[in-house]
From TrEMBL:
Boundaries of every NADPH-dependent reductive aminase-like C-terminal domain copy: 166-290
Superkingdom, natural source: Bacteria
Naturally occurring in which organism (per UniProt): Streptomyces lateritius
Keyword Repeat carried by entry: no
Signal peptide annotation: none
EC number, UniProt record: 1.1.-.-
Residue span, 6-phosphogluconate dehydrogenase NADP-binding domain: 10-159
SUPFAM superfamilies according to UniProt: NAD(P)-binding Rossmann-fold domains
Similarity annotation: Belongs to the HIBADH-related family.
Name under which the protein is recorded: NAD(P)-dependent oxidoreductase
Keyword line: Oxidoreductase
Top EC class for this record: oxidoreductase
PANTHER family per record: CYTOKINE-LIKE NUCLEAR FACTOR N-PAC (PTHR43580:SF2), OXIDOREDUCTASE GLYR1-RELATED (PTHR43580)
Length: 293
């Protein structure tokens, strides 16, 4: 009989903060787990939880049909693959959860295919502490058959979101969400840097900042709808109004002794958009103006 999902063996290569959490989640759901890390000392805590240590990457790959990679960069993944032969990789499914670009994922998928392996790329939407919990999920793309086969096992990490058979799509979705997150954090650190110049406690100000940002997030669907429809005219806040107000921000930052390095480019984008004739449009127009090809 086919093995139940929890008895499918998994190998994890890369036991950093995230890889360690992934291995623990597979262990917690009853999977036989083999672990390998460049610095062998990181296998210790997982072995104590029941994982089998592999002394080489090749040994870890040989131990399971499903091989999860979570290294720092895709250059590291390419380096690791360079040390493995077609004989070692053929028939394995590689699930690469290392952060990377769509082009890197496509190149890795082609490389894996040449080596006779199936390839899934993944983008983890969680921090290590969330892995295996209800809010964590992972975008996947690549070999759909491999995804369907291993989905029950991968569910140990959290939700599974299929983005398509183009291997680059998981990274695209991942980077898109992280871009939104970084944009938010850029605003947060700038706001806190500004108010603390007048001795306002950051923690106190966060109580105002969180509901404000949350309320502004309500505008996102409308911006997205305008972008999709190409109808950018707004009755909320035009680019002309934003362009007129924005120098106040840059001036205040300078007056208060806060760097403008994060915000100056936004002024330049507003200026360019208004000069191009989009003064009456809303923020959705900026997404079009940012597209360079
Ligand atoms: N931590 C997080 O919150 C984020 C959440 C979203 C996904 N990211 C991405 O996950 C990848 C791994 O991140 P991490 O947090 O586990 O990172 P580290 O704790 O720094 O662990 C890095 C592991 O990579 C190994 N490694 C580095 N270089 C090499 C190499 N040349 N060959 C083999 N392995 C290598 C490193 O090994 P060692 O230094 O312990 O020997 C760690 O196992 C990453 O893409 C995030 O963007 C995490």
């Amino acid at each position: 009989p086919a093995p139940s999902p929890s008895s499918s063996p998994v190998s994890i290569l890369g036991l950093g903060m995230m890889g360690g959490a992934l291995a623990a989640a597979f262990l917690n759901t009853g999977h036989p787990v083999t672990v390998w890390n460049r610095s062998a000392s990181k296998t210790g805590p997982l072995v104590a939880q029941g994982a089998l240590p592999a002394t080489t990457a090749a040994e870890a790959v040989a131990a399971s049909p499903l091989v999860v990679l979570c290294l720092l960069t895709n250059d590291n993944v390419n380096e690791l693959l360079a040390g493995l032969s077609e004989k070692q990789l053929a028939g394995r499914t590689l699930v690469n959860l290392t952060n990377g670009t769509p082009a890197q994922a496509r190149a890795l998928a082609a490389r894996a295919e040449k080596l006779g392996a199936r390839y899934l790329d993944g983008g983890i939407m969680a921090v290590p502490q969330m892995i295996g919990g209800p809010a964590a999920y992972v975008f996947y793309s690549g070999d759909e058959q491999a995804y369907e086969t291993h989905r029950p096992t991968l569910a140990a990490l959290g939700g599974t979101k299929w983005t398509g058979s183009d291997a680059g799509l998981a990274a695209l979705n991942d980077l898109g969400l992280l871009t939104g997150m970084y944009g938010m954090f850029i605003g947060v650190v700038q706001a806190l840097a500004l108010v603390r110049t007048e001795n306002i406690k950051a923690e106190e100000y966060a109580e105002l900042l969180v509901p404000w940002i949350t309320a502004m997030l309500g505008l996102v669907p409308e911006i997205a709808r305008d972008l999709d429809s190409g109808q950018h005219l707004t009755d909320v806040s035009s680019l002309a109004v934003n362009q007129a107000a924005f120098p106040n921000f840059l001036t205040a930052f300078k007056e208060q002794g806060v760097s403008v390095e994060l915000f100056e480019p936004f002024q330049a984008l507003l200026d360019r958009s208004v000069e191009a004739g989009h003064a009456a449009d809303g923020l959705s127009r900026l997404a079009e103006m940012l597209t360079v090809r």
